[in-house]
Amino acid sequence: MNFASDNIVGASPQVLQALSGANAGAMAAYGGDEITKRVKARFNEIFEREVSVFFVTTGTAANALALSAAVPPYGLCVCHREAHVIDDECGAPEFFMHGAKLAGLPGVGAKLTAESVSAYLKGLPKAVKQMPPKALSISQVSECGLVYGLSELKALGEVCRGHGLVFHMDGARFANALVSLGCTPAEMTWKQGVDILSFGGTKNGCLMAEAIVVFNKDLAEGLDYRSKRAGQIISKGRLISAQFEGYFEGDHWYANARHANRLAKMLSDGLIQLPGVRLAWETQANEVFPIVPAAMDKALRDAGVLYHPWTELSLPEGEKVGQGEALIRLVLSFATQEEDVRRVLDIARSAGSRQAAE
Amino acid sequence: MNFASDNIVGASPQVLQALSGANAGAMAAYGGDEITKRVKARFNEIFEREVSVFFVTTGTAANALALSAAVPPYGLCVCHREAHVIDDECGAPEFFMHGAKLAGLPGVGAKLTAESVSAYLKGLPKAVKQMPPKALSISQVSECGLVYGLSELKALGEVCRGHGLVFHMDGARFANALVSLGCTPAEMTWKQGVDILSFGGTKNGCLMAEAIVVFNKDLAEGLDYRSKRAGQIISKGRLISAQFEGYFEGDHWYANARHANRLAKMLSDGLIQLPGVRLAWETQANEVFPIVPAAMDKALRDAGVLYHPWTELSLPEGEKVGQGEALIRLVLSFATQEEDVRRVLDIARSAGSRQAAE
Amino acid sequence: MNFASDNIVGASPQVLQALSGANAGAMAAYGGDEITKRVKARFNEIFEREVSVFFVTTGTAANALALSAAVPPYGLCVCHREAHVIDDECGAPEFFMHGAKLAGLPGVGAKLTAESVSAYLKGLPKAVKQMPPKALSISQVSECGLVYGLSELKALGEVCRGHGLVFHMDGARFANALVSLGCTPAEMTWKQGVDILSFGGTKNGCLMAEAIVVFNKDLAEGLDYRSKRAGQIISKGRLISAQFEGYFEGDHWYANARHANRLAKMLSDGLIQLPGVRLAWETQANEVFPIVPAAMDKALRDAGVLYHPWTELSLPEGEKVGQGEALIRLVLSFATQEEDVRRVLDIARSAGSRQAAE
Amino acid sequence: MNFASDNIVGASPQVLQALSGANAGAMAAYGGDEITKRVKARFNEIFEREVSVFFVTTGTAANALALSAAVPPYGLCVCHREAHVIDDECGAPEFFMHGAKLAGLPGVGAKLTAESVSAYLKGLPKAVKQMPPKALSISQVSECGLVYGLSELKALGEVCRGHGLVFHMDGARFANALVSLGCTPAEMTWKQGVDILSFGGTKNGCLMAEAIVVFNKDLAEGLDYRSKRAGQIISKGRLISAQFEGYFEGDHWYANARHANRLAKMLSDGLIQLPGVRLAWETQANEVFPIVPAAMDKALRDAGVLYHPWTELSLPEGEKVGQGEALIRLVLSFATQEEDVRRVLDIARSAGSRQAAE
């Protein structure tokens, strides 16, 4: 019963098989092969336009490379103060951007609003001592499991246009957001003004396959060199593209994400029926953030359920984790079994009953 | 008949199987898993001492990260002027070292001698305008297919000690060098003064698995953070370690390297018996660098044999590629078929005969 | 009546004369001259021990270079969230530290306490995604005009030792702090655990002369190379050292700082006697931060008094700038005339009276 | 008799006076003052068009900043292998360019030809492993004292256009080149295709005043931020501009350069009349590079004449420094006395006579 993250299992069988199938025989190295060519064309189809695609092996590399194409070394990149790029990547963006700075703004549910970004930008001193803002980076799904709606994205896109910022989307859980909104990849990205996207594959079924998808052509210039000098161009390049081929085949990626989101909903719905349990943030994708009684937290851990505590930094105003409560995160993935969700709910329910009895 | 490089095929079956076998089930992410623990212990055994090991996905990343641990941003790293680090990595070392410089020295067969390195170091101005030398990087196997002997390594190691340099070995073809020398990994590295090693797995049978092996403990400090910020720590970390597990199992890596070296010898021996063919550099590992008549070059290409022309920059003094000749490189790998070697030799032989007849 | 900053005048006559006097004749370039040698010895005397000194032309360069010696590219430097290094240097520290990050903590009066720093450090995740803290940087005088007392410095020094951090002091207004505390340079620095100091000369009488003073010998290694590669080693190096020679001669620097601090006290004392005026932070050095009625603010500006509005971010808890009030900063320097202070007070007083009359 | 360099004296009296004259009174800091405004307008006049000007304190900073505006971090900058930027700046360009690489080409007299640059560019592999060339940097005057003629500059400018390179000129001795050619600043720069210029003032009479002059508007974008984050924006900014004001006043800079060049010619003409003396490279500006008998070298040194030995790396083909000979560099400046030149010639003559007599 491991709900620690969606990267604790390997690949989904279909992806692994695609990889194995592409293994034999000689092909051009460094992405000059046929599979890579096919997969790049597939990305064009998926996004309903020509895009530039660069394959990397980690989400951190995807984000950091994407931002390095968007922000000059003296620039500022606006993001949420709990964003993965600012909090979980050991300074990778700063490294790849050569010292450019991330400005972390507050926001409920780890989401930014057009208003708060706009106000922040207007308040910046107009002086050479102030690094000039050059990009906005948001996480779709957010770090609190929320999904930006299309109108929210549109509004952020307009702020970016208005202030000359590149709009970057960290889509480590892109598929989960997509099936949550029920829109097309195009609608969730460039149609709202997104310029460059970190397109995650690993969390939703690949072994190690992430892509940078560039909508704004200018940003693609030199990105291959940047990737090479970051040691991110795999010599046996087809082994990344093959994963994506399996991932896309028969809308496998949608199916994986739907499964994870559905189980998250199931877990979430079950939990909030229990006394003393409420959600820190609505369950919109494949993560559940309940605030539970400490006793329930303990019971779950004692039963061997694995998950992480979470920070209350981005709770809605007025909301608080009380004494005797715990805010936790449970992540569901393509590989999670429905039965495991039921067992977790059973354990939680028992803990609740015991507590009521006491 | 693809002899372009040893990265044009996928993984060897045994490695692929190890990867597949490690795919199912949940494990701690980011290298906190059991497989990774086992493989790290295996590295200690292989090198007959405690070593620090960091897994990455490309040789470029391994080299660049290793050098970043060795050279401060204002330092100089001495290498051969045809070294992979200076010539083939799009500035990755300079990126990871934050602007530190590579000084490329000449040397026959892309090898450096203790004498030439020492003379170079002594000739450097003692002034603040001169970046101070901090590391020496050599390629074992060299870019011209030569293998440093143990006494050569020892002499270079002593120069490093004498001048306070870190000694780095780019072992992209580590196994091929090892079976060529018939020595132990320990003898080829730290016993001769090597401080830090890029240990290649990809070219000799892995999908994408390289390791930085650190003998000098001080250099390991912070390397995990450096790797993380370079986007090189795979979330499903076991999928790299599992490759190494398969690679080491039953001395599979030795077998792979022996096969490649043996076929190289076979190809080399066959070629030099043909009229007008001579070797630019002795065949010591899994690469053959013949100088062939232009007609033979053409015949091979026409027959669909794939390989690269090579530069004559590091030919022995006095040696030259004449008009009507071509210096080419043929690379043999674990996956090369003996039959392919025979076919190449047949084509070359026919071309030679035809030419003689004309 | 320019109170905008302490860098709006040129040099004090004594410093200018020292510069002029050192101008003629040939001397070794790049700091190899006799004057530089003498001044470095003078620094040893001033700090009552051997120190390493590096001359630069701006405070930003001093801070950024000092931090680059203290923090590896993957490290974290803790500072106040309004610190000059994080807020006013356009990312110079991040540039010189090659992407290392500044973590800005809150604190009244732009000061940090040992408790808050300690709590922050303890709260950091122990994981490779988290950049490890490597240095603490404080501003003495703080950005709100406050001076750390010796016991406060000592406590911060102990936190640094306990967590393995380098302790950096931004002493852009070092002399003003010194005469405020009435202690020795040694007592205000290394005796409390400061490892490396940005020693400002420009704001207190030099043209462009700042020094990095290193107490922890290890941090001096390579700093000359770092400075050279930052374009900070002036070819006619004596022209910086000569400024310091004039600056130190006859305790000129103390006299300059005493003058500025005394006028600040005079201005401050005068202002708080006026109705509706209070201090945001106590006047401890050469800057005054009054909260004044908007009408007084307007009157001062109308009369041509130059100064900057200030942020209320670091006000004491519960304190606020009300509607109809303005928080402003007035900076006094060695060149400020007592008469100008009187004129400002007169204007403020009249404004106050007029307002009372209305 | 110090001929070591043209940075071993302070400022010329006229420049020093301009600095002193600008010292008193309050003005806007960070270059927002009237003097700076005036001097920038003066640059427009001098170059007969609108230019962007950025003031810095060292030639190294000027070069490194200029190149950072021209070359992305993954790019290549072509220069002569003895160029100041590659050889004498401790990696400043690599630091400011964030790891971009300098490619040093050979060339007689430390000059590059359009042919050699063009051939080099054409020979570069078209592959992502190869950093793409983005700029050409030349030194006018060259490191061997030679001056590029207008047609040579034009040809290099055309190569740059043809290959999409930014054309940078290191004009540390700009004035000396200018009076040597007898052309206008416009003719020596943008009219031949120069995009960005390091305009030296220090060697020809300033204390510490260099400027980056940008002709290609695109390159000016962000350069103020780059300069600020490099710690190169002096707070008392007028103190740099004032130097330039004095420097330009009454064509003082021309007079200084003419004086230095004239004395160089005088020294050069005198020396080559002596037996056994010849010039390594023609004397075209303010440096003399004679090859002299070892005995003469010794006699000069014994008499206290200060100068540097020089490398023979860029001698014309076939030329060599023989045994018993020394290649030396003597630099003349605005401050050199004619009498000193005569004394040097006397000493050299005596040494020659003595040797003949023996």
From TrEMBL, chains A, B, C, D:
Its cofactor is pyridoxal 5'-phosphate. Gene3D superfamilies: Aspartate Aminotransferase, domain 1, Type I PLP-dependent aspartate aminotransferase-like (Major domain). It catalyses: L-allo-threonine = acetaldehyde + glycine; L-threonine = acetaldehyde + glycine. Keywords: Lyase, Pyridoxal phosphate. GO terms for molecular function: L-allo-threonine aldolase activity. It holds the Pfam family Beta_elim_lyase. GO terms for biological process: L-threonine catabolic process. Its EC number is 4.1.2.48. SUPFAM superfamilies: PLP-dependent transferases (SSF53383). Residues 3-288 form the Aromatic amino acid beta-eliminating lyase/threonine aldolase domain. It is an enzyme of class 4 (lyase). The keyword Lipoprotein does not apply. Homotetramer. Catalyzes the cleavage of L-allo-threonine and L-threonine to glycine and acetaldehyde. Belongs to the threonine aldolase family. This is L-threonine aldolase. It comes from Microvirga guangxiensis. The lineage of its organism: Bacteria, Pseudomonadati, Pseudomonadota, Alphaproteobacteria, Hyphomicrobiales.
